């Protein structure tokens, strides 16, 4: 049965993205600070279909595991708009459901990625993603507001956080406005690394 998961990098002070986000400034220009551990891994570049990366270590193992377990994605319109102009073709290799008020026909890419634009809320997106996932997990890709919506609705089963050893000082916090009484949270795994600390949590709805 599909689990609802997210897998996100944040700063030590809890920021998921920087200020002044736009298609010309994805994630507020902080990707290198938050995700350098990932960019160093060959597994990440393999996923993009190009050569790159300096290492193929334990960090790469977690990248491959997350890719393998994911059968469908859900994201917000803002994240989609930031990525649409620069993402390579067939990046996600699965169906992607975009939460938006915009009515738009599905964007079918070469390969196995199709973007569907959902106008009637997170439950509708989740129902459709379950059908696409075929028993694999559904990953709430972002941005932070979309992850917060799923958390506050009590719909998340598990998440993996990668804490980069940097302070951003301002930006968009991943856990802003979260209902603190929604879940019983258990630490499943703590994995130290050179450029990040991986933390896996299991959630049980109270």
Query: What is the helix/strand order?
Result: EEHHHEHEEEHEHEEEE
Structural class per helix/strand content? alpha/beta
Mean pLDDT: 94
The number of helices is 6
Query: What overall geometry do the principal axes of the alpha carbons give?
Result: globular
Q: Would you identify the regions where 5 or more consecutive residues have pLDDT less than 50?
A: none
Give the full name of the CATH homologous superfamily. Dihydrofolate Reductase, subunit A
The radius of gyration is 16 Å
Helical fraction equals: 25-40%
InterPro entries: DHFR-like_dom_sf, RibDG_C, Riboflavin_Biosynth_HTPR
Organism: Sphingobacterium anhuiense
Domain Bacterial bifunctional deaminase-reductase C-terminal: 3-182
Protein name: Dihydrofolate reductase family protein
Task: Describe this protein's structure.
It comes from Sphingobacterium anhuiense. This is Dihydrofolate reductase family protein. InterPro entries: DHFR-like_dom_sf, RibDG_C, Riboflavin_Biosynth_HTPR. This protein is of the alpha/beta class and about 210 residues long. It has a single domain (about 5-205), classed as 3-Layer(aba) Sandwich (Dihydrofolate Reductase, subunit A). The chain has helices at about 30-40, 40-50, 60-70, 75-85, 120-135, 145-150, and strands at about 5-10, 15, 70-75, 95-100, 105-110, 115-120, 135-140, 160-165, 170-175, 185-190, 195-205. The chain has a nine-stranded mixed β-sheet. It has a two-stranded antiparallel sheet with strand order 2-9. Helix 4 links the parallel strand 3 (about 70-75) and strand 4.
